[in-house]
Specification:
With about 375 residues, the protein is an alpha/beta fold. It is built from 13 helices and 14 strands. It has two domains: about 60 residues, DNA polymerase, domain 1 (Orthogonal Bundle), CATH 1.10.150.530; about 325 residues, TIM Barrel (Alpha-Beta Barrel). The structure holds S-adenosyl-L-homocysteine and iron/sulfur cluster.
Length: about 375
């Protein structure tokens, strides 16, 4: 074993990288040069970073690594969607999904192995919680995807969109496994790298954090790094939301909506994206639409209706297409901006909420956590 613990430079945010280099007497431009090699060119061998001074490279080799994630499995969907399952050690795995579209390439990344919030419609919620990911593990998903997609002709390649022409990932959404705002510090480090011009150079609006509503951390994010914010609403009243998003019992709707408005003070030209999963007979009636319209009057927002992606244990059903259309129309008629999410990658279990099916089986979490208090929708709301 080496006497000096190895530092994974992949997980150092721009300030941390600069101070590491400064400890060795290096100027900030050296840190920026190193950052471009690692994050923009995807290089993991210090000896290949030929324009770095030799003594600097020797120091790096002695003390550091560029430790990307370990791939367990990779799948490609007929629609071009790609999914990676990464091994996080000790039986944990997480998933990352790339969704190519005409004008963008979106990477959906994970922030935790498992999740404590335990929403009854989400397969990650069924796994229980294993652990928080580190900054290196979070940014490593983006680092790996850019490397893997470099040689994929079907991946969108957008001039300028990703900071440097030629990189496939132009947008990042933190909508994979886990609740990003319950792993705040590590997620913040990763966000800073995504936005840094010498790392991924993504604009603030091309990076979205999706949260089930961790109110105090919404306030911190507003101050620290106000990227685009998506809030998983899923229910228009506390009674139903307490059951669909159990975190609502701690931070009820009125508190959440007030936090959304405070967030928008830091991002004045932005809006909140409210995600709303369409569950047959649970949250998709005209009355729910009416209540939702009242909520929308309180916050500058857009709606993203997500057709529920079923999985066996949930016991829930997707709203029929006609119901989703009507529900959407009700909101549109009230002057709201609404999109209905297209399901992508469901042939490889990469659609929303389907992540980690394999993980659950592999870790046999159901046996280890037999009694999770999670089936909160035993009775349908309306009888
Ligand atoms: N924990 C965060 C981010 C990860 S979940 C959050 O809850 O916002 C990302 C999105 O996927 C959320 O809006 C979530 O509600 C949605 N989702 C989870 N399970 C789903 C399923 N089975 N079908 C469709 N969408 C799902
Ligand atoms: Fe966690 Fe989000 Fe899934 Fe809820 S929807 S269990 S908050 S990952």
């Amino acid at each position: 074993m080496s006497a000096v613990p190895s530092i994974n430079v992949l997980g150092l945010d721009p300030d941390a990288l600069t101070s590491l280099v400064a400890q060795w007497g290096g100027k900030p431009f050296r840190a920026r040069q190193l950052s471009r090699w690692i994050h923009q060119r995807g290089e993991d061998r210090f000896e290949a970073m030929t324009d770095l001074a030799r003594d600097f490279r020797t120091r790096l080799e002695a003390n550091c690594t560029v430790g990307g994630p370990v791939v367990n499995l990779e799948k490609r969907s007929a629609d071009g969607t790609r999914k990676w399952l990464f091994d996080m050690g000790q039986g944990n795995a997480i998933e990352t999904v790339f969704i190519p579209e005409d004008d963008r390439g979106t990477l959906c990344i994970s922030s935790q192995a498992g999740c404590t919030v335990a929403c009854p419609f989400c397969s990650t919620g069924y796994q229980g919680f294993s652990r928080n990911l580190t900054t290196a593990e979070i940014i490593g998903q983006l680092w790996h995807a850019n490397r893997a997609l470099r040689d994929d002709p079907s991946a969108a390649r957008l001039e300028g969109a990703a900071g440097e022409a030629g990189r496939a990932v132009s947008n990042v959404v933190m909508m994979g496994m886990g609740e990003p705002l319950l792993n705040y510090d590590q997620v913040l480090g990763a966000l800073r790298l995504m936005l840094d011009d010498h790392a991924y150079g993504l604009s603030r609006r091309r990076v979205t954090v999706s949260t089930s509503g961790v109110v105090p951390m919404i306030d911190r994010l507003a101050r620290d790094c106000p990227v685009a914010l998506a809030v998983s609403l899923h229910a228009p009243n506390d009674e139903l939301r307490d059951r669909l998003v159990p975190l609502n019992r701690k931070h009820p709707l009125a508190e959440l909506l007030a936090a959304c408005n405070r967030y928008l003070e830091h991002a004045p030209r932005d809006f909140i994206t409210f995600e709303y999963i369409m569950l047959d007979g649970i949250n998709d009636t005209d009355e729910h639409a009416r209540q939702l319209i009242q909520i929308a009057r309180q916050v500058r927002c857009k709606f993203n209706l997500i057709p529920f992606n079923p999985f066996p244990q949930s016991g829930l059903r997707r709203s029929p297409a006609a119901r989703i259309r009507l529900f959407s129309q009700r909101l549109v008629d009230a002057g709201l901006v609404v999109t209905v999410r297209k399901t992508r990658g469901d042939d490889i279990d990469a659609a929303c909420g389907q992540l980690a099916g394999e993980v659950r089986d592999r870790t046999r979490i159901d046996e280890r956590l037999p009694d999770r208090a999670r089936i909160v929708i035993r009775k349908k709301e309306h009888g």
